[in-house]
User: Which sequence fits this backbone?
C-alpha cells in the first residue's frame, strides 16, 4: 500500500509504481493508456486530480503532470479548465471511415463517396492525354509549384466557390487529407493546440493524434461556432490555430453564416491564429458564401479538393496559402510526398479548362438532389439535417437510441452508417445522431432499400433495450 493510505478513499484510477528502467512518468502514462484501451477506464471517466494521484503514489506532482501530458498528446485524455481531466469520449472509436469494398457486404451509406457515373468524362480525358505525342512528359518527375497554367486553372476553379485568389498563392497536394497532414506537420509542433468544432471530420483527428497535436472543442450555438467562446478558449488554452469547415460541416451539415465567418476572421487576425479552412464541400453548394479566407487572407490556409466534386480517383487538392505560411508549407508538402501526380493534375486542369468539370459538377448536384428528395420522403417526420445538395445527412435519433447502438442495429440489418461517437472531440457531449452518406452506394435501388431499412429500425425502437 502507498505511504499515504487511500484504502477507503474513492478514486476512479489507482495506478501503481512499477520497478523498471523507464522513468516513472512514462510508466504512469503507459498504465493509463493500457487501462483506457482495455476498458478499465471508459470514455468520459473523470480522472482523479493530479495532486491526488501524486499524494497517493507519494511522488512529485510534476511526474504525474508529465504522464498526463503524454496521454493528452495521444488524444487519450482531455482537460477542461475548472472541471478536471477526463478520458476522451472518442477514445474507443475507429476514426478510419473508408470501407474495404472487397470485404464490405453492406449497403454502404457510411463513407462519403461520389457516384461513379461522371467518371466516364475523367477516363476519356486521361485516355486523350495519354495519346498525345508529349504524353511521356507527364510520367516524369515534374514539380508543379511553378506551373503557371496549372495554378491559373486552380484559381479559376476556386472562383466557383466564391473565392478570388492570386494564382501565385496556390500550392498542390495529393488530396485533401494529404493537405491537412502537410499543414499540421509543417506549421505545428507536438504539444500545440488547434480549436475545432465539438464534432469534426475524423481525418484531422487521426493526423493530430499522430503528431501529438491536441484538438480543443469550441462551443457552438445552433450550428454556428461561438466567436466569443473561441476568443476565451484561445486565451485559456493558448491555441495556435483553428480548423473550420464553413460549408456543409462534416458531420452535422451546418454552414456558417456570413456574420460568423467575419467574426472568426476578425479573431484570427487579432490573435494571429493559423486558420485552416477546409472547403471540401463548398463547391457542392449552388451559391456558396464567400469563405473566411476572403476576410482574413493573411491568416488563412484554404483547402479545396476535386475528389468530392469531380472524381475520387483524382487525388488533387488546391491550397490557397497566406503569404506568411507559403514557404514552410511548400517545403513540408515536398518532404511528405515530393510531388503530386503530374498525370492526375494535368487531367484535372484539362477538365477545368474544357468546361467538362462544370458538367461533372452539375451532374453530381443533380444526383445528390435526387437522392436527398428520396430520403426526405422516406424519413419524413424525423429530424434529419442537411439540404438538397449536401452529400451526407445528419439524422438526430429519437429517444431510446445512442449513435453507437443505432449504428450497430443498422450494421446488423446490412447497412453501414456512422455514429456521432466517431466524430466527437475530447470530452464533448455526444449527441444521439448518425451520419448518412447520400452518394456512397452507386445503385439507386440499393440506396432506397438502405433508407427503408433505417426507417424500420427507427420505427421499431421501442422493441430494443439499450445500455
Assistant:
Amino acid at each position: 500500500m502507498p505511504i499515504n493510505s487511500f484504502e477507503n478513499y474513492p478514486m476512479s484510477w489507482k495506478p501503481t509504481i512499477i520497478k523498471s528502467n523507464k522513468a516513472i512518468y512514462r510508466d504512469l502514462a503507459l498504465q493509463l493508456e493500457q487501462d483506457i484501451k482495455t476498458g478499465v477506464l471508459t470514455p468520459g471517466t473523470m480522472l482523479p486530480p493530479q495532486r491526488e494521484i501524486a499524494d497517493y503514489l507519494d511522488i512529485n506532482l510534476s511526474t504525474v503532470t508529465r504522464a498526463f501530458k503524454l496521454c493528452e498528446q495521444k488524444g487519450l485524455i482531455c482537460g477542461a479548465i475548472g472541471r478536471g481531466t477526463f478520458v476522451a469520449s472518442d477514445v474507443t472509436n475507429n476514426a478510419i471511415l473508408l470501407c474495404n469494398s472487397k470485404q464490405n457486404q453492406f449497403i454502404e451509406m457510411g463513407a462519403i463517396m461520389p457516384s461513379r457515373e461522371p467518371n466516364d468524362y475523367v477516363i476519356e480525358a486521361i485516355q486523350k492525354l495519354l495519346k498525345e505525342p508529349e504524353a511521356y512528359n507527364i510520367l516524369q518527375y515534374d514539380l508543379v509549384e511553378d506551373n503557371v497554367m496549372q495554378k491559373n486553372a486552380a484559381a479559376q476553379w476556386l472562383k466557383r466557390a466564391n473565392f478570388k485568389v492570386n494564382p501565385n498563392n496556390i500550392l498542390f497536394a495529393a488530396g485533401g487529407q494529404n493537405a491537412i497532414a502537410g499543414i499540421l506537420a509543417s506549421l505545428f509542433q507536438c504539444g500545440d493546440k488547434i480549436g475545432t468544432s465539438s464534432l469534426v471530420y475524423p481525418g484531422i483527428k487521426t493526423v493530430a493524434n499522430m503528431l501529438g497535436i491536441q484538438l480543443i472543442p469550441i462551443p457552438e450555438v445552433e450550428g454556428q461556432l461561438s466567436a466569443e467562446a473561441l476568443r476565451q478558449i484561445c486565451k485559456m488554452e493558448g491555441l495556435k490555430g483553428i480548423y473550420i469547415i464553413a460549408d456543409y460541416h462534416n458531420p452535422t451539415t451546418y454552414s456558417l453564416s456570413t456574420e460568423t465567418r467575419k467574426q472568426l476572421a476578425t479573431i484570427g487576425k487579432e490573435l494571429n491564429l493559423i486558420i485552416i479552412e477546409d472547403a471540401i464541400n463548398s463547391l457542392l453548394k449552388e451559391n456558396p458564401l464567400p469563405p473566411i479566407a476572403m476576410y482574413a487572407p493573411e491568416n488563412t490556409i484554404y483547402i479545396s479538393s476535386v475528389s468530392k466534386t469531380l472524381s475520387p480517383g483524382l487525388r488533387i487538392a488546391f491550397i490557397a496559402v497566406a503569404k506568411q505560411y507559403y514557404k514552410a508549407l511548400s517545403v513540408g508538402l515536398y518532404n511528405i510526398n515530393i510531388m503530386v501526380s503530374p498525370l492526375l493534375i494535368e487531367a484535372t486542369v484539362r477538365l477545368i479548362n474544357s468546361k467538362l468539370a462544370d458538367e461533372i459538377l452539375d451532374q453530381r448536384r443533380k444526383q445528390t438532389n435526387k437522392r436527398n428528395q428520396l430520403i426526405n420522403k422516406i424519413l419524413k417526420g424525423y429530424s434529419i439535417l442537411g439540404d438538397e445538395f449536401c452529400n451526407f445527412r445528419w439524422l438526430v435519433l429519437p429517444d431510446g437510441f445512442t449513435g453507437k447502438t443505432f449504428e450497430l442495429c443498422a450494421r446488423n440489418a446490412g447497412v453501414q452508417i456512422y455514429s456521432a461517437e466517431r466524430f466527437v472531440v475530447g470530452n464533448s457531449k455526444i449527441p444521439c445522431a448518425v451520419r448518412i452518406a447520400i452518394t456512397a452506394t452507386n445503385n439507386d435501388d440499393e440506396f432506397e432499400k438502405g433508407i427503408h431499412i433505417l426507417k424500420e429500425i427507427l420505427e421499431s425502437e421501442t422493441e430494443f433495450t439499450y445500455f
Notes: The two ends are 35 Å apart (CA to CA).
